Amino acid sequence: MKVYIKQNLTAYLAAIVILLISIQVQAQDAHFSQFYNNPLYINPALTGTTDEARLMFNYRTQWPKLPGEFVTINASYDQHIEKANSNLGIIVSLDKAGSAGLRSTNINALYAYTLKISDEMAVQAGASVGYGQRLLNQFTLVFGDQLTPFGTTGQASQEPNLANQVGRYLDLSSGIVVYGRNFWAGIAGHHINQPNNAMSTLDQDAKLPMRLSAHMGLKIPFLESMTNRNVDYEGAVMPAIYYSQQGNFRQLDLGTNVYYHPITVGLWYRGLPIQESSNGAISVLVGFKYQKINFAYNYDLPIGRFAGITGGAHELSLSIKMGEYQGRRYSRRKQPLRFPSMMD
Question: 0.85 cut: is pTM over it?
């Protein structure tokens, strides 16, 4: 009897968690702990903040103890066009949430303009326009007419077909960032048109809330480079902070990475210190750089109300630089102004 009660209590608690998370997922964008390794996703103004063309992949899977998948995948490409002081990029985001198979796909084209204030500071303003789509996987759902006292009927449901219930919308975002050799700070607004992403024409109030964010970081070198004239250090401490708000959801990320060529390690906190968070976590990161490739992995150890139920999160990022600056050499005094990366 005790085992039966315990199993039912666990199932009941899990059902509540799934319901709360499902509501949360529908109301907000996916969140990446490695926000600094997903620049086009957090701010269009960060497009082209590299001296070479850049290809990036981001993968996040979370809450592995809950039924269904909660997976987000981003792929992006961006480059700086020096002669036009311009930056171009594209990002594709795929998201799958829960056992109901709620899927979201977003494709965004980005542009940013670089205004060089001095040899030590620059400002970039950027915007993106994109297409979004949301749909359900009907075949993963179980309806009332498919249930019996002994389980499911194994027959198709007579409920209305959901195959054509797809939400499609235009998505607009913008942002600005200012940076120097060892600092950066920016603000961004996503879904500024607050599009209706409802999967049914009967629902006209399913607006995607605007996501507002502010972010900044520092780079504090502690080891001077003796072998590579393209960089002036091979070791640095890199603290950063990221705050985002979307609807009633608020989140703060803060922490630091420490780079000692070719390894990066980091320790981060996610949540709101002034109030109890259902999605709080301590994140530990390990990264490795090989030539023009940066790879990083982090694990989010949950510390919120559902810490023992969700199972945390795993996240991977991969950045590959490609371009013309491979063989260039600069004197110490003529280093070009580069955006201060959080990984090297």
Answer: no
